[in-house]
Amino acid sequence: MQNVPGFKCNECARSFSVGEIEYACPACGGNLDVLYDYERIGKQVNKAALAADRNFTMWRYRALLPVEHASPTPPLAVGWTPLYDAPMLAAEFGVRQLLIKDDGRNPTASYKDRPSALAVVKAREAGASVATTASSGNAGAALAGMCASVGMKSVIFVPATTPAAKVAQLQIYGATVALVEGSYEQACELCLAASERFGWYQRTTGYNPYTAEGKKTAAFEIAEQLNWQVPDRILVGVGDGNIIGGLWKGFCDLKQLGWIDRLPKLTGVQAAGASPLVDAVNGDGVIRPVEGRTVADGINVGDPRDGTRAMRAMRDSGGGAVKVSDDEIIAAIPRLARATGVFAEPGAAAAFAGFVKLRESGAIKSDESVAIVITGSGLKDINTARRAVGEPLRIQPDIAELDRLLS
Ligand SMILES: *Cc1c(COP(=O)(O)O)cnc(C)c1O
Ligand SMILES: [Zn+2]
């Protein structure tokens, strides 16, 4: 990790050198920020070198990632997901530009492939033979898939309420699966106790310092895909807050390198039934844990594990935060899909629902260019999606009957 001089705790601000820590801050338990030597990185890679690089995965930004020089990366193609221009939707809502970053296109169909791919690299560097994580579903599926691709064992802890498709992914990838009769927070506690006892490599968000680094790669892609321009605003669903904090880190990295000249507003979207960060940002800044209750399992986090950094991203960027109801999330799924062809899972559609709400209230202005990060595929949770649509036509194979039904 020659480009990484050390770590800094984002709670108590203590600094640590490489090799001194493995996971969270030993002093206060806070999340660690990975520090970089930008001058050194600037000598290794630049925009022209990237333009010539045929590696269309997150690993094209390897110089900006905390991995050893010779570490092999998992073979699955993670990242460099499409950034679609959606002009019809932009016209419908009256904004200058609307962009859709489709991270459902990743190997296990969610944004979580980015942090999990990086975690597997770190697990192998640490000589681990088993990796573990707690998850609301996607992080676990991603870790299980990445582990399968390199022949590593995985043990995944998810709430028993996790959608069936996500649980099926875990089992199909060969993970040892623990369906925890409890909340995501309780699954986290159990997973942390288990890795302590059995010595497994621990990926859990808010403990492993590298997840946010994997998550920042989408910021690099958005900037590069727009020829090093940045949108005025980016919206993303927020649970633990690790994605939005990671995106902020990514844009700040690019600003430090001088590759972009301004930073986007990052707007966090939470479900009304699990909105401690939105309430803190729009209130007195104090995060008050709640019992999360929403159909959007990917963002059903009542006690966010990376709240401080998430709040900083929303406040320092000026993007702020908004919450949406489950009904608004469910309605957003077909609305987005019918206008763009992108089928989002509830936690991802929440970002679009947040856009709809802020545009209709006038908080998002007509001259803005806006990007919406679709963090997971709609195929991850078809039962919720189907609540937005009626029953399909069912007919005998008879053209006369079709005539009757369509008229
Ligand atoms: C994990 C996840 C999020 C939120 O990411 P956090 O880092 O927990 O804030 C949003 N959408 C989906 C689909 C997710 O799986
Ligand atoms: Zn600390």
Strand order of the largest sheet: 4-5-13-10-11-12
The CATH level-2 architecture of the domain at 83-109 and 211-389 is identified as 3-Layer(aba) Sandwich
Helix count, per DSSP? 16
Name the beta content range: 5-15%
CATH secondary-structure class of the domain at 83-109 and 211-389:
Alpha Beta
| Main sheet summary | 6 strands, mixed
What is the CATH fold-level name of the domain at 83-109 and 211-389? Rossmann fold
Overall radius of gyration: 21 Å
The helicity comes to 25-40%
Q: What is the structural class?
A: alpha/beta
Series of H and E elements: EEEHHEHEHEHEHEHEHHEHEHHEHHEHH
Extended strand count: 13
Give the N-terminus to C-terminus distance in angstroms.
67 Å
> How would you describe the shape?
globular
Mean pLDDT across the residues is 97
List low-confidence stretches: none
* Ligand catalogue: pyridoxal-5'-phosphate, zinc ion
